[in-house]
Amino acid sequence: MSRFSKSLLALALAGLAGSVSAFDNYKGLGRPATEAEIKAWDIDVRPDFKGLPKGAGSVDLGAEVFEARCASCHGSFGESNEVFTPLVGGTTQDDIKTGRVQSLRDGSAPQRTTLMKVATISTLFDYINRAMPWTEPKSLKPNEVYGILAYLLHLAEIVPADFELSDRNIAEVQKRMPNRNGMTTDHGMWPGKGLGNGGKPDVKNVACMRHCKKEVQLVSSLPDYAADAHGNLAEQNREVGQARGKVTGAKSEAKAAEPLSESARLSQLANTSGCMACHGVNGKIVGPGFNEVMAKYKGQAEAETQLAHKVKAGGAGVWGSVPMPPHPQLSDADAAALVKWILSGAPAK
Amino acid sequence: MTDLRQKPGRLRPAPENFLSEEEVAAVASQGASSRRDFLRKSFLAAAGAMTAPVVAHAADGDPNILSNPPWTTSLGLPVAANPYGMPSKYERNLVRRESPGLTRVSAASVAFTPLQGLFGIITPSGLHFERHHQGWHDVDPSKHRLMVNGSDPGFLKQAKVYTMDDIMRLPSVSRIHFIECGANTGMEWGNVAVPTVQYSHGMLSCSEFTGVPLRLILEDCGVDFKKCRYVLAEGADGSSMTRTIPMEMVESGEVLVAYGMNGEMLRPENGYPLRLVVPGVQGVSWVKWLRRIEVGDKPYATKDEAVHYIDLMPDGLHRQYTSIQECKSVITTPSGGQMLLDTGFYNVTGLAWSGRGKITRVDVSFDGGINWKTARLETPVLSKALTRFNIDWVWDGKPAILQSRAIDETGYVQPSYGQLRAVRGTKSIYHNNAIQSWKVSETGEVSNVQVL
């Protein structure tokens, strides 16, 4: 056997080992799921109704539950366009016969409702059951889900008013879904083998470089009325760099900064004025800690004035030979306030 | 010698577009000297956070050089003043934003990434676009579980439950990938609808994700890969988002169960503590707050692959299970809603990506697609990741139409609007990867236009 074919064989074996025999590979990690755990989470329902819970619900029950739990967003008849696009509308008796919604072809419906689009009734059961109502998902009982679905189907005249939808007749109702033949997977955008055309793109451009066309057909631009629909673009671009945003609206009101408490202001001032570079709050760095200063001068009547002067003018000798530099940039008021703040023990708070 | 009073820094005097019509009229009626003063003041007001570019007494040079600013003459802030660092206050304009009128409920909405201000290929985690179907939660990682089971119990040797501790002990990988919503650029199928690249292309981000290849976890459960050709991924949020993933992608090792993003844990808005990473596939499949993986023998037709994320074709059929994000690119600067500062040199820059692999080339046109020049691709150029391109441009002050056209390693060339619409019409909402055009007018204004 040549070396070449040996290595090929090794590769093939490695591939086999990777996909078939490996199991329980990570000692101590993961544990078996219990039956109750799987039951609690495995709630999905497939188009072939695998996973569908047993149960039944009438149009009447559905109308009642829908009004109480769903109508505030969807409208009493699933027609509301206020919060979400309408659930019901745009389908006909003819669509129920053919399984293709005609208004999708001729564009006659103002917008696409859920029942115009969905091909699989399982999708509706699964989604209502897992995600509705909007603010209290997973709070509906299976019979209520059947009922709500029956009510919606009745609104679209897919089932009669006295209908009760159940796990036993749902497959029959599937055969009346108005857009059941309206889906195709004949495209190149499924990244696997089971569906689609194998990944063949539907558009083929070529990378022409010179004189590619005679003229530029400019077919659309932003209408004037929409110029400021997205706010002031000047405030959505960096204020430095290659370009600026265009001014398309009023400058937004600068949010009034939260006024700092006096203590927070002084803490910031101590940082920006350089105090904290040499003084610790609770101990010496180069100069004495604020706690040491407080201990030494607390209760001395003249100390505040003297120290405020020293902060501004600088000094040396009291705490050792390293001098404290002058801070002439501080106002008298700020210097006094800082000293008072230090002597009150506030920095440590 | 140039009089520096007349040429302050590199800023051109304010274009009149910074002013309202009334202000322009008021200035025009007051003569030339008043006009200069007014423009100067107005520009300062419009660009309030900028250091004053024009100071009348600066006869000897730029005052920003002649007098030291406060940050050069005082002590700065100490370390850990911001324990978790934040961007400069001057960067406050670059934030995620909703597009007004796009959705009616902000818990089922989109916040777009400000692509117009970003560099390189990595999206800062705080600017990663957001799309939630039923709001977001900050999930307690100590209570988060990942379950693996089968649509049929016989499809694996053992259904298992993993804690975050378990998952973070498993062998990990880190990979850089783009994530793009299938509806990115969806508002633009029929006509121009939004002003800037943030709203036209901002459902796009790129991060380094760290996690465990899903294949390892499925092997650990003894999944029968022959029978199970589909995977259902499910989230732990109220919507319990579900999507079907092809097993071929899982087997390739590229699908990750990820907890890390750009060196830290995922952000809550992006699925903390666990999300699926499905490279090259639209964002809706990257299920956030991932709590369950079911292996099965059939696709699932979940709500977001049977009611939404289906592409309406001109014949009234919907394409179902369209997942791959095809090759696409966009120039991010200059882009819609911007004003060029002046004529002269610009570094035209943008992003290219493909759900089918690596970008091999990006061409840029300055004349609306009549002639093209090949741009520089910046490294790294990675499979199913954003790729940054740059090209030199000297704007002569004349109108121009800027376009970019990406080519991926399969040889696929990004299509024009005309080509795309000829096949898919204008109502598909999803998967609009047409060549984007930005018009530059004589005033320097850049605007969103469509060219067939």
Which structural class do the helices and strands of chain B define?
alpha+beta
In the predicted model, the low-confidence regions of chain B spanning at least 5 consecutive residues are 1-19, 30-56
User: CATH-wise, what's the superfamily of one domain in chain A?
Assistant: Cytochrome c-like domain
Number of domains of chain B: 3
Rounded radius of gyration of chain A (Å): 37 Å
Helix content of chain A: 25-40%
CATH class of one domain in chain A: Mainly Alpha
Content of β-strand of chain B: 25-35%
The helix/strand order of chain A is HEHEHHHHHHHEHEEEHHHHH
Tell me the greatest interface. A-B, 115 and 148 residues
Strand content of chain A: under 5%
The CATH class assignment of the largest domain in chain B is Alpha Beta
CATH topology description of the largest domain in chain B: Sulfite Oxidase, Chain A, domain 2
Number of strands of chain A: 6
What does the main sheet of chain A amount to?
Answer: 2 strands, antiparallel
From the coordinates shown, what is the CATH architecture of one domain in chain A? Orthogonal Bundle
The CATH architecture category of the largest domain in chain B equals Alpha-Beta Complex
What ranges of chain A have pLDDT less than 50 throughout 5 or more consecutive residues?
A: 9-21
How would you portray this structure in words?
The complex is a heterodimer of chains A (349) and B (452). Chain A is mainly alpha-helical and 349 residues long. Among the domains of chain A are: 40-174, Cytochrome c-like domain (Cytochrome Bc1 Complex, Chain D, domain 2, Orthogonal Bundle); 262-315 and 324-348, Cytochrome Bc1 Complex, Chain D, domain 2, CATH 1.10.760.10. Chain A contains 15 helices and six strands. Chain A has helices at residues 3-21, 35-41, 59-69, 71-74, 93-98, 102-106, 114-117, 121-131, 142-155, 170-174, 262-272, 275-278, 290-297, 303-313, 332-343; strands at 31-32, 56-58, 164-166, 183-184, 218-221, 243-245. Chain A has a two-stranded antiparallel sheet with strand order 2-3. Mean pLDDT of chain A is 89; it is low at 9-21. Chain B is globular and about 85 Å long. With 452 residues, chain B is of the alpha+beta class. Chain B folds into three domains: 16-72, no CATH class; 107-319, Alpha-Beta Complex (Sulfite Oxidase, Chain A, domain 2); 328-449, Immunoglobulin-like (Sandwich). In chain B, strands 4-3-12-7-8 form a five-stranded mixed beta sheet. In chain B, strands 5, 6, 9, 10 and 11 form a five-stranded antiparallel beta sheet that branches. Chain B starts with 20 loop residues before the first helix and ends with a strand. Classes of the chains: A mainly alpha (349), B alpha+beta (452). At the A-B interface, helix 1, strand 1, helix 2, helix 6 and helix 8 of A face strand 3, strand 4, helix 6, strand 7 and helix 7 of B.
